[in-house]
Amino acid sequence: MKGWLGKILTVNLDTRETGVITPDIHTYSRFIGGRGMAGFLLAPEITRHWRDPDLPLIFMTGPLVDTLAPTPGRMTIMSRSPLTGTICDASVGGGFGVQLKRAGWDGILITGRSPGLCGIDIHNREIRIVGAAEVAGRSPGEVHRHLGNQGSVATIGRAAERGVRFAGIVVDGHYFAGRGGLGLVMSSRNLKFIRVRGDGHTPVDDSRELKAARSDILRLSAASPVLQGDLGIRTFGTAALFDLMHQRRMMPTANFRHTRFTAASEMNAPALHKRYHPESHGCAGCHIRCKKRDSRGRGLPEFETLSHFSALLENRDMETVMEANHICGESGMDTIEAAATLACHFELLGRSPGTDEIPELLRSMADGSRPDLGGGARRLALAAGRPEAAMTVKGQSLPAYDPRGAYGMALAYAVSTRGGCHLRAYPISHEILRKPVATDRFSFSGKARMIKIAEDQHAAVDSLTACKFIFFAASLEEYARALTAVTGQETSAQDLQAAGERIVASERQMNRANGFTDDDDDLPMRFFTEPGSSGGGVSIPPLDRGAFLAARAIYYRIRDGRESESSGDDS
Amino acid sequence: MKSLLETYSRKLAERGLAEMPEIHFAALEAEIVWNRTDPDLELEKVFGGMSVSTLLSARPAEPYRTLLASLIRSQPHPLKARDTETRTFLHDLPVSFSGDAETLLSFLRRRKGVIAPGPRLITTGTVTPEQAYIVFSSMIHATFVLYCLDYLDRCRSATVTPEEIVEFKSIMDRLPPPPEPGLPLARGPLAGEEKILAAVAEAGARTVAAGLVDSYFGNVSYHKQGTIYISQTGSSLEDLPGCIDACPMDQSSCAGITASSELSAHRRIYTETDMDAVLHGHPRFAVILSLDCPERADCPDAHRCHTHCRRERTVAGVPIVCGEVGTGPYGLDRTMPPAVAREGAAIVYGHGVFTAGRRDFNEPFQRLLAVENACRREFMERVTSALKG
Question: Is the peptide bond before A353 cis (omega within 30 degrees of 0)?
C-alpha cells in the first residue's frame, strides 16, 4: 500500500488498551481518507449520544498527507456534534496529520473515558496515556509549550472543559477544528491533548509523476487571483473576502437583520494589515501560507471571524475583534458560533452590544459562568421563547455570507450535513468569486445540481484532506493525477467525484438515523420575510420561499432519487 | 437553462467555431434539456456515467475541422500542445476513435474535453454551459496553434507531402481575413467613471470582434487617479458591462479579488510608466511565432521555455518574454511589464500579447492589431521560406 499506511490506531481510555484497525485497499479506495474514512468508521456508532464513551472520536489523515502534493498538511477530526446532534467533522491544518503519518498511522480512533484528565502521547509505535492534571484549564498554546513544543499537539482549551457546546480542538496552538463541538466530545473523555511525533515517511508510488501533478496544481494556483493575487488569500488571509461581501451587500449585520455594515471599509483586511503588520504562516508543506499573526503572536481574524465580530455585532472597533478572536483561540471556542450567539443574545435584549461587553461575555462563555451562552444561539433563543432570533440551520449558526445575496448558498446552508455551514458546497466560489465560471447569484436555476456536485467534490477534497482553498484554482482532475501517483491506484476525477457522492450519502443516512428529516433542511424564516440592505443599484429582496422549496425538491430528486417529504409549511 | 444553451450555441456559431446544425448542447438539472429537438441519445448516456451539469458536442466549423483531422492523423495521442491554455488548464487533448458512450466516458472522466470521431469535440462542465463553451473554444485555439507549428516544422524538415501543402493552403484560405483597424475607439482623456467603464467595455468588445482573443481570455484595464478599472477574472471581453472591478492602486481594498489574474502585471505597468490603458489578447499568430524558436533544438532550457527562456527574441519589433499566468515564482508580472515599459508591447511566450497606450485604448488596440497582422504575414513567410528549403 502506498500513500495510505493501512493502519489506524485505536485507543480505549477506559481500558488503556490500544489496537490497530487495518482497512483493506478496497475500503480506502471507496472512502479515500479524512472525512470519508472517518465517516465510514463512525457510521456504525452514530446513534450513540455524544457523551457515550463508545461513540468514537476520530482523527484521520489522507493519502496525500506527508507527500509532495500541494496542501498536504491537513486532516479530519470527526464524531457526533454536541451542538446539533448531526455528524460533526472538521478539516484542520497544522502539522498533526504529517506527524501522524510519519509515526506510521493513517488515523486514531478513540473510545472510552479516562478516570482523570489525560493526554495521549504517540511516538511512532509507542503509545502512552499520560496524566494531564497539570494542564487542566490551560490554553492550547500553553499546553504546547508545556510539552516542550515538540511534535504536533491537538488539544482542547478551557471552554471544552467547562461544557461549551461549540468548543473545538486546536492543533499546534493556531489551527482550529471548529464548529459543532468536537472539543466537548474530547473533553467528555477526559482527554486534554494528543501529542504525536513521527520519524518515518509516507511511501509514494511514482515521485516523478507526483512532481508533474504538483507542478500542474501550483501553476493553476499561481494563476488564481483569489489565492495568489496581490489582493488574495496569500497576502491577506481569508479576510481578503471581507470587502467583496460588503460590496455585494451580503455581509450579515445585526444578527442578519441587515446585509450591509457601514463601517466595513474601515475594518477590512488592508486596514488590519496596516495596523498589525502581520507575518504569514501556514500548514505543513503549504505554499499559500494564509494564516497571519501580529508581533504579539495573536492570530489575525479569518474572514468569518472578522465579519461576525464586527458587522454581526455592529462593532466598529478593530481591537475588539482582535481581542475576541484571541479569547476564542485561547479558550478553544468556535468564533462563528460564539459571535452568532452574542448577536442572538443582543437581539433578545433589544439592543446592540457595547464594545467592552463583547470580550467580557466571551470570557464568561468560555469559563462556564454563562452556560446559557455556552449552549449556542439556538438553545439561547429557544430558552427565551423566541426561536426566530437564532440564525441557525440544524442548530448551528450561519457563517458570514447572507443567503439573500447568493441563492446557491441558501440551498447549500439548508441541506448541509453538519448544519449551517458554508464549506459543504461553497457556492460562493461561482456566485461571487467567478470560479470556475460566474453564475447568477440571484437565481435558483440550475443550483440544485451545482450544489449536489459541489458537495460531492468537497467531500472528496476533505477526504483527500487537501485544502479547500486550492480548489479555487485546481480541480479534482489535477488531484486525481496526484493521488494516482501517490497510491499507484489509477484514479480519475470522476472516481473521486463518485467517492464524494458515496461519502455524502453516508452522512445523510447517519443524520437520518438520528432523526433528522427534510424539515431540518431549512433556513430561518427571517430570510423569507425580511429584505436585506438594498442600495447602490443592488436589490436584496427576501428569498422566494416557493422558489427555495422547488430548488430543494429538485436537490432531493438528484441526490436521493425521491420526492421531498416536507411541504415547508411547518417552518 | 434552455436559454443559456441557446446563447452559447449562438456564440459558437457567431465566433465561427461550429455551425448551428452541428451543435448538440445539453444541460442536466433534474431532467436533461437540449438546445434542439433531436437529442443525441448516445451522449445522454454520458450523463449517466459521470457527474456533470452540461455537455457540448459539435463538429468544428471549417477550417478547424480539417486541421483537427490532420492533427489526429499526424500527431501522437493525446495531442500535446504548448500554448498557455493547454499547459495551464487542459493539460493535453485526448483523442477517442470510438463514439460510443463508454469509450467517451473513459476519457471524459479524466479530462474536460475529448476529440471524438467526426471529428467532433466533446466538452463538459460541472456548473454551467459556459464552462463547456470555454473548453471547446480553448481546444480550437490549442489545436490551431499546434497544427500551424507542426506544419511549419515539417516544412523545415521537408517531410510535408504535396497533399498536406494543398490542405494547408485551403485551411489558410478559409480563415477570416486579417482584421482591419475600423473606427476609432472612444477618445481620451477619459473623464469620469462612466466614460472609463464604457471605454473599457468597448475595447474588450472590439478586441473580440477583431478576432484578437477568444471572448473568455485576455483582459483590459484603464488607470485613472489612483484606481485601475480592470475586467474581472473569467469575464467575457465582449460583454464587460457589470464585470469591471475598480481596484485602488494603493491596495487599500480587496474588492478587486475578482479582478483579472493579471491585475498585478497591469498595476506594475502603471507604476513604472505613464501609460493609461493596457490591453491583453491571445492573437493566434503572435502565439504561434512566440513558440517558434529556431534555437530550441539545441537549448538546454527547451523543456521550460515558458519559464526560463532568457534569449532576446522579437517578432515584428515586439519583444517575446517568458512568464506564466499570474503571480507565481515565474509569473509574467515579473517579466512582461518591463518589456511593455520599454517597447509599449510584449508577447508572452505561448500566451498572448500585451499592449499599452496613453489617454485611451486607440494606441494599444491598433498596436495589438498591427502585431497580429505582422505575425500572420511573418508566419506565412516562414512557411514559404521553409518550403523553398
Answer: no
Look at A224 and B326 and tell me if their CB atoms are within 8 Å: yes
pTM score of the predicted model: 0.95
Strands, E assignment, A268-403: 279-281, 291-293, 392-393, 396-397
Of B50, B261, B330, the CB nearest to A229: B261
Binary contact (A436, B91; C-beta < 8 A) = no
- Give the closest residue to A58 by CA, choosing from A104, A98, A91, A93: A91
With b meaning 16 or more CB within 10 Å and e meaning fewer, what string describes B167-204? bbeebbeebeeebeeeeebbebebeeeebbbbbbbbbb
**Tens-digit pLDDT profile for residues B199-239:** 999 999 999 999 999 867 899 999 999 999 999 998 999 99
Nearest to A28 by CA among A3, A59, A56, A9: A3
Count H helices and E strands in chain A, helices first.
24, 16
Cα separation, A340 vs A213, in Å, equals: 41
Task: For residue A404, give the C-alpha cell.
Answer: 439573500
Q: Where are the beta strands (DSSP E) in B258-368?
A: 277-281, 313-315, 318-321, 345-348, 352-357
- Chain-chain contact of B111 with A477 (C-beta, under 8 angstroms): yes
Q: Which domains does chain B have, with CATH numbers?
A: 2-173 (3.40.225.10), 193-388 (3.40.225.10)
CB contact under 8 A, A231 and B256: yes
Q: Under an 8 A CB cutoff, do A231 and B263 touch? A: yes
CB atoms within 10 A of CB A349: 10
How far apart are alpha carbons A50 and A183 in whole angstroms? 11
Alpha-carbon gap: B378 to the closest alpha carbon of chain A (Å): 31
- Residue B207 in contact with residue B130, Cβ under 8 Å? no
Q: What is the sign of the dihedral through the CA atoms of B72, B74, B78 and B79?
A: negative
Among A222, A494, A558, select the one facing B324 at the smallest CB separation.
Answer: A222
In angstroms, the CA A492 to CA B332 distance is: 31
- Using CB atoms and an 8 Å cut-off, which of residues 139-178 of chain B contact chain A? none
| Chain A residue whose CA is closest to B268 | A230
CB contact residues (below 8 A), chain B span 257-296, against chain A: 257-261, 263-264, 267
Return d(Cα B24, Cα B123) in angstroms, integer: 11
Query: Amino acid identity of A87?
Result: I
A368 Cβ contact partners less than 8 Å away, ≥ 6 residues apart: A162, A163, A164, A374
pLDDT in tens, A300-327: 999 999 999 999 999 999 999 999 999 9
Spell out which residues of chain A touch residue B87, defining contact as CB-CB under 8 Å: 219
Phi, psi of B225 (to 5 degrees): 45, 55
| Domain at A8-197, CATH from 3.60.9.10, 3.90.249.10, 3.10.50.30, 3.30.1300.10 | 3.60.9.10
Find the CB nearest B260 among A225, A239, A269.
A225
pLDDT tens string B15-38: 999 999 999 999 998 899 999 999
Query: CA of A225 to nearest chain B CA: how many angstroms apart?
Result: 5
CB contact under 8 A, A494 and B109: yes
Contact A527, A543 (CB under 8 A): yes
Q: What angle do CA B41, B42, B46 make, to 5 degrees?
A: 110
B123 and chain A in contact, CB less than 8 A: no
pLDDT digits (tens, 9 = 90+) for A2-59: 999 999 999 999 999 999 999 999 999 999 999 999 999 999 999 999 999 999 999 9
SS3 readout for B155-192? HHCCCCCHHHHHHHHHHHHCCCCCCCCCCCCCCCCCCC
Q: Nearest C-alpha of chain A: how many angstroms from B329?
A: 8
Residue B10, min C-alpha distance to chain A (Å): 19
CA distance B160 to chain A (A): 33
